[in-house]
């Protein structure tokens, strides 16, 4: 039967060495790499996310990982200093400011960016 307490998700990256550096050193996440170049990020009380290598990787066109922050302005500034570029949107329902932050009165405050493989991530302040 399904072991709900052991659920995990995963996504691909073109270069897991590059992904390892980014997730560990830029984002500061707890991450390990195994003999097959599969990365494991540990989150929320031991839950896992895996990143697996894929030669014909195509970046996700949607947000694959939301990262909660207490102060989005500080988090954007800190990551920008580490070379992260934030995505800019102007789609009517989503409009970002010059920093790349979407400040929505009816929802969370978000800032999107990509990992080295082009997957979309978001900082989120509720």
UniProtKB/TrEMBL annotation:
Pfam family, one: Glyoxalase
Domain VOC: 5-126
Top-level taxon: Bacteria
InterPro entries: Glyas_Bleomycin-R_OHBP_Dase, Glyas_Fos-R_dOase_dom, VOC_core
Protein name listed in UniProt: VOC domain-containing protein
Naturally occurring in which organism (per UniProt): Fluviicola taffensis (strain DSM 16823 / NCIMB 13979 / RW262)
UniProt lineage: Bacteria, Pseudomonadati, Bacteroidota, Flavobacteriia, Flavobacteriales
């Amino acid at each position: 039967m399904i072991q709900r307490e052991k659920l995990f998700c995963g996504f691909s990256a073109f270069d897991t060495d590059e992904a390892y550096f980014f997730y560990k050193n830029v984002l500061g996440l707890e991450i390990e790499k195994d003999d097959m170049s599969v990365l494991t990020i540990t989150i929320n009380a031991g839950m896992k996310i895996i990143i697996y290598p894929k030669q014909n990787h195509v970046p996700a066109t949607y947000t694959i990982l939301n990262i909660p922050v207490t102060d989005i302005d500080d988090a954007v500034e800190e990551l920008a200093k580490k070379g992260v570029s934030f995505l800019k949107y102007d789609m009517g329902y989503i409009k970002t400011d010059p920093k790349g932050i979407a400040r929505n009165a009816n929802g969370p405050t978000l800032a999107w960016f990509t990992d080295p493989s082009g997957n979309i991530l978001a900082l989120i302040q509720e």
